[in-house]
């Protein structure tokens, strides 16, 4: 009989449950309340949930959606799905309506795991999803308005262990583990088919790539519906036996209290979170924390050194995409602002639209291939045309624009089709966000572009979308911008919003802000003082 494939998450957890049964490998935190999972509990709960899913008629290859925050059940469902050979479809639980209905239909999901906070959005979507046959609930539901049979995962967890235990149905790392959707910022979201081998491979990145050490305690507040939380925190922690802490959702105001309480030595964040954390009022003990390493994807160059000094941390900057491709800039190795050089086993190039390599310093599309081999095909579920376009002549086309210096260091510029070009020059939104974010009238901020009022092709006016504090005043913020920014960077518009809409990866959703910008009743200020 062949040995269990260690790249399959269910086999990894089963092996760790045998070797380290009582290690509290995962702590789930929510507003001060905690739940822990040992390896034994994770494995046994996954077996119980797998039995419950099997009783619903799920078979190998079937898909079901996870519409939940970072509960212990999320990871238990990941392992349970691997036991059965089914495919999970993680979806940001804030998704609702037509977008949710599209993702459920496109993924061919047979059922949905949800919680009380995501039920209303699911109820909106279900009339357009005739193939959804059941819902499994995390927690309790005060008023069940669901039009399909509803099952309590708590009942599955209270059941005896299957006897005998269910065998792991997945044998090859090439088999699909999950369908992870892109954010859909430029159109309908695309479902990336992620094989088991991808999760298994990145589980080995903890020590080899990110530099985790025995005894480290990783932390994340990013959603497990996104690759960062799974690949940077969860997978390496399971592989190395690190006692990870995972928040139900990200909190900029509680971040440092959480890592101090749990003794976390490393955490992961995205560029959009940096400005929010930096904008929090300074405290005398900011650097008095146990964190030694911040794993960052998108640390603004303008904040890099100040952030590291203020909080007493080293910055590990990297670039990564769910479809593949990765670059790394370990602390002290590369220039400030660079997302690194290709990770081991990869090559990178900056190319023009025709696939020609561009000279050093010129901006083009960031592309990757394997050392000595073409990049493997990328599969988007139900979208063969997009799949075919993603790899060209052996190179993965990232869709991100970047430049490379003479020493091979990569500098991210903007998403292809994005960027803010003003008066013939590209302006840096992250720098504007940093400067305006320091104003006492700003609680959160995102800077983007709208077509120029002057009508010049490719030119954009700068919009600063602001979540205001009680001290917000448009004239004060414009004066602040004039005093601290180059003229080309001063926003044309201040857009006042109640919150910055974001994806599960904390990426601001520019499309929604654009729609709100043009909507009747929008609060838009210009420097002249009138509403636009």
From TrEMBL:
Domain AMP-binding enzyme C-terminal, first and last residues per copy: 432-507
InterPro entries documented for this protein: AMP-bd_C, AMP-bd_C_sf, AMP-binding_CS, AMP-dep_synth/lig_dom, ANL_N_sf, ATP-dep_AMP-bd_enzyme
PROSITE patterns: AMP_BINDING (PS00455)
Name of the protein in question: Crotonobetaine/carnitine-CoA ligase
Pfam families for this protein: AMP-binding, AMP-binding_C
Keyword Ligase: yes
One MF term in the entry's GO annotations: ligase activity, forming carbon-sulfur bonds
Keyword Thylakoid: no
AMP-dependent synthetase/ligase domain sequence ranges: 15-369
Entry superkingdom: Bacteria
EC class: ligase
Enzyme Commission number(s): 6.2.1.-
Keywords assigned: Ligase
